[in-house]
Amino acid sequence: VNPLVLACYICGGQCLQFAFYALLAHCLSMCYRFLIGTRLGLMLNKGFFCAALPLAVSVAMTTAGLSGVSSSALSAGRGIPVRRIDIELPRLPSSMRGLQVALVSDLHIGPTVGEPDVAGLVTQLNALKPDVVALVGDLADTPGTQFLSAAAPLANVQARLAKVRIGGLCLAGVNDQFADVATDSAELHYNLSAALSACRPSDAVVLLAHQPSVAKDAISSGANVDLILSGHTHAGQFFPLTILAKLVFPFNYGYYRVGRYQIFVTSGAMYYGPPLRTLTQQEIAL
User: Which residues contact 14 (CB under 8 A, 6 or more apart)?
Assistant: First the structure.
């Protein structure tokens, strides 16, 4: 990772957050000016609204400053936080109870995520000793040759099980919903039915889908799926996008249940663009 490029991305993220807080401060100032001529405004003149503007500006400057150091946990040498969650699949054979799946999404290998970050992630994954490692998309933000070099450590990922169907459990993966636009190859297009074709009706089916919106398709079509594992949203990554993500994505972050369908959306192992996280964190879900 080029230090200059990394610094530019950090500054860009800080500027975006500062612009939002500056807008918030301006709105508070406008409210204060509107109220100052009213009886309520006179009562509040030396109270909350009088302090709101400098407080908002202070929050903006503080957040912008602190966000610059909230870069990749791996780069800071702390390791990626591990979120542990227990999900019960009724159709899963009793012999497979306790199966551990490590869910990893959104590596975004590119200008701010390089081979050392990927190698650190792999080391941490192997230390967890999962039965299955599920990578659910957005691996690269860089051209193919550069990606292959930086992603090389992924070949060292170790998992106890590595089959599509394992004694009553079927792991199915569906291509991204934008694949139809990105390629003319029909084999790479989004096709939920084809992705599930190898699964038997009696199997406990876990569907790996980068975008959580696939869950809506699975539910509306009555697909034979027990659990859907996704990423993509980053849980908004940093404020104020953390609020926007909750409004845009019905399945934004965490565990959801709709009838018999269970959905889990991870916030991602890395980040997109600026290496910043506020009001959310990167994670490995286990």
Answer: 64, 65, 67, 68, 274, 276
What is the H or E stretch that residue 213 is in?
A: none
Are the C-beta atoms of 154 and 121 separated by less than 8 Å? no
Single-letter code of the amino acid located at 112: T
> How far apart are alpha carbons 140 and 219 in whole angstroms?
29
Q: Which amino acid is at 80?
A: I
pTM above 0.90, yes or no: no
Predicted local distance difference test score (pLDDT) of residue 256: 96
Least confident among 54-68, 177-191, 231-245: 54-68
Residues 82 and 266: beta-carbon distance below 8 Å: no
> What's the token pair of residue 257?
């249940």
Query: What CATH number does domain 82-285 carry, 3.90.550, 3.60.21, 3.30.160, 2.40.128?
Result: 3.60.21
The answer to whether residues 71 and 104 touch, using CB atoms and an 8 Å cutoff, is: no
- Mean pLDDT for the chain? 79
Q: What is the pLDDT of residues 23-32, one digit of tens each?
A: 776 676 677 6
CB 246 within 8 A of CB 239: no
Long-range residue pairs from 5-8, CB within 8 A, at least 24 positions apart, any chain: 5/111, 5/112, 6/71, 6/111, 6/112, 6/275
Locate all alpha helices (DSSP H) within 36-143, ordered by sequence.
Answer: 39-44, 48-67, 115-128
